[in-house]
Amino acid sequence: MQAIGRLLSRLIDSVTVIAGLAIAFMMLHITLDVVARNAFNYPLPGTITIVSYYYMAIAAFMPLAFAEQKSAHISVEVLTERLPPLVQKHLAGWMLLLSAAVFGLMAVRSWQEAMGKYGIKASVVQGEDSLAVWPTYFFLPVGCLLMFVVVLYKFVVYLTGQTSGLDSERKRADSTPAETL
Amino acid sequence: MTDVQVGLTGIGLLLVLIGLRVPIGVSMITVSFTGLWYLMGWNVAWGALGVIPYQFSTNWVLSSVPMFLLLGFICYHAQLTEGLFRAARLWLAGIPGGLAIAGVLGCAGFSSVCGSSVACSAAMGRIAVPEMMKQRYSAELATGTVAAGGTIGALIPPSIIMILYGIIAQTSITELFLGGVTIGLLTMVGYIAVIVVRVKLNPALAPSVSEQVATADKLKALKEIWPIVLVMVGIFGGLFSGFFTPTEAGAIGAFLACVVAFVAGSLSWQRFKHAILETLLTTTALLIIGIGASLLQRFLALSGAGEYVSDLIIGQSADMFWVLLGIVLIYLLLGLFLEPIGCMLLTLPIVLPIISSADLSLVWFGVVLTKLLEISMITPPVGMNVFVIKGVVGNLISTTGIFKGVVWFIVADFVLLALMMFFPDLVLFLPNWGK
Amino acid sequence: AVVGALLLGAGVAEARDLRYAMGFPSGSDSDKAGQAYAAAVKDLSKGDLKVRVYPLSLLNFAETSAGLRDGMADMGYLLAPYFPAEYPHFNLLAESSMQLLTMDERVRGREGMAYVGALSEFVFTKCPECQAEFAQQNQVFTGPAASSPYYLNCNKPVRNEQELKGKRLRVAGSHWSRWARAMGAQPVTMSSNEALEALKQGVVDCVVVSIPELTNLGLIEAVSDVTVDVPGGIFAGTGVTQVNSKVWKGLSTEQRQVLLRAGTVMPAYIPFVYHQREKEILEQVRQRGGKVHEADPALLQKTRDFARQDMQTIVEYFAKTHGVQRGDEMLAQFRPVLEKWVLLVQDVGSREELAEVYWNEVFSKVDAGSYGL
Ligand code: NA
Ligand code: NA
After folding, report:
1. Distance (Å, rounded) from C-alpha C140 to C-alpha C256?
2. Terminal C-alpha separation, chain A
3. pLDDT tens, residue by residue, C128-183
4. What is the pTM of this model?
5. Reported ipTM exceeds the 0.95 cut
6. If contacts are CB pairs under 8 Å, which of residues 194-223 in chain B contact chain A?
7. Are residues B295 and B325 in the same domain?
8. Total CB pairs under 8 A between chain B and C
9. Same domain, residue pair B389 and B326
10. Which InterPro entries match (chain A) (predicted)?
């Protein structure tokens, strides 16, 4: 069991590296575009398309499982925290099935959509040219599938009561899910 | 069941799921998907699940969300923010409650590079609370100050809440930002007034600091804030002189922060990595809620429930004042329990039509809404800023204690809120200035 | 109101409610056109068919194609240029709109009306590939729409080639992009909700868009100089009332006939109102202290030469990128149709008259018993 968890964590780590690169590239790409536009009056062609389709599709969906692993998805505890700990535990366990259903369906659906877009080689107009966007559709099924697997694994861990092996440690003690808004 | 009843049932079910601690995004997707299925058939629900998530996320203006988050995280992890508090502290050393005032000023300064109030609270909490405790300030005052001060983070631009609002309401984000400047600064002034009055009434809250600060030290402290000032000036200067658009400002700011921090020697690879990882966690958590809200909007539109509820609110009274008061009360009530961005995305499909049909300014309402949501960050039982401060200070004080410290600041917020309602120009004069 | 509609709906057994999604906000000209269309459908069908317009509340433009395909809406306002891979043939016809510059003076002030007539006739009768594209996306075409011409809307005078050189122009469309480059300017792509701020702050020097959009997008407050005539060309890639195929097939012949008859309302409404607005808004620009310039004759001539040459570029580009086989032939066939339509719309004085011309010349000849089935 723990071995599976560790393997999953390893998998999440590699997907997270890709997502992290997307964030870093987004920053660099937009900055370069602004500099090139102002200094040389030559905006980099395709910046808006690449940022909004490629980097954003990666940043939105690829870290889903990473956030689940670190319990960073936002929920409201105010009612459940009044319940006895045991009830809380079972409730949280069974509610994982809902997340599994949602992300399982999304994985299947977005895979269909991605294959459809691949079939017609979907693109968008960018300046004088058109830029292929069909590859970006594949980030959704990948991110959703990994999320589905992690949630399902957490459910199995809950059912069997074994140790998870998932790396759920946050780097900082005070990095709460809401360290954000 | 009529379509409207299906819609209303959906809203009820949604609240139940959120109450059962199902993640907000998952709750919204579940309800919208099953609702569309029941109402319009499998094909429509299945179709929506294919179209909306991709189209919502792949949006150019939305790309400013991760970039502004990254800017804030870089500034924090590279410790660009610490100098702000230190400088304010030295300059205010003689004044009663000076450290707390310095905390508020530090929050306001950090706000101009940080888009969210929790991050702002957390950053200042780590820096300012220990200092105040060293000078034997009351723990309630110390923690309350930074919990409340953090709310300035989403009012002074950049602001994630305002960006999301601008996208959904199709209003100018620049104008929202300009409206936020005034309200953010007034919030700051209000909080400082609260501190001054409280310390006047009860000097024991903040024992006066005996240390004599040399002018040379004060000037030296000013020099230490150059990195953050440079980032600030770069963002706002470039924005208003036409070098880049508000959407691009986040990326430019993050890059600038990296360079400045690197030159200042405070950005290690490890810190950069932390900033990126936190950006990822927050981005994906926010966007999945956005996707849920986007789906929910279709469900509410197709069932007619959204229209039904807004008709119900408007229909009760012809007088716009009461309608607005109702909206404010609803947000304060929801704000007691809900996480602010989820709360906003959940309600806008119903509230925006009311605002536009009443011919109210969407910019004004956007700023009022941001203020309302920020108040909800410090009201019990769910007050995100308070929880974060609790996480920072550990066993120093109970959560209830922090909430007690915050009460006084909420009074100041209510005064400001009333001013915003009665004098809309307070919000709008900056955005309208250029026109 | 909704409950009322439901109760009424329950009384008439065969009545059919159609959900019509458009990406424009409520209160916009297109929303008004949509309401006029809905009223026409209701009248013509005697209440048997009802269209309910969802302005920006059901699908935005990026979602419309797939949303319509999957039945989230029964009808939709499709902007085909958003989807170059899905609708290449229709887009080729739309993108060649700069050929309006190479026609005689009679087309001036009527560009949109003539183009809509020609597009309707061509797509309904002479473009099986267009029909196949729509069918592939599970849609039936029941009419196009178009804007008035695209001009230079700037924050400084940009009247001739000298002044154009090096200027940053916000353009949406590859033909305008190529034109900008050919004139020595720099095309910039950005979303329309950023255009105002970009123009105000000088991120761009000009926005290339039709004059009515100056008020629709609020650009007017940042525009000090408008140069008319260039680059010319119109936005024409609109399938204004696309119907989901399954819905279309589920209607009776009479109901389809109603949709075709009412289908002339928006194709007439939108270009007519755009041309009408153009004059009003140019006047507003002047009143606010802005200037309206005519393009320098040399620039206009160079633009015409560009437009002529660009037709070949378009054909080659669509062949290479999207496999459009008979682009040359299509444009050659389209030109005489367009010339005919310039004459047909010459004396039209109201949008009702225009709708009547569209009906008599094109829409009435479409067989509701077989079209799109
Ligand atoms: Na801020
Ligand atoms: Na609260």
Report:
1. 11
2. 36
3. 999 999 999 999 999 999 999 999 999 999 999 999 999 999 998 899 999 999 99
4. 0.88
5. no
6. none
7. no
8. 89
9. yes
10. DctQ, TRAP_DctQ
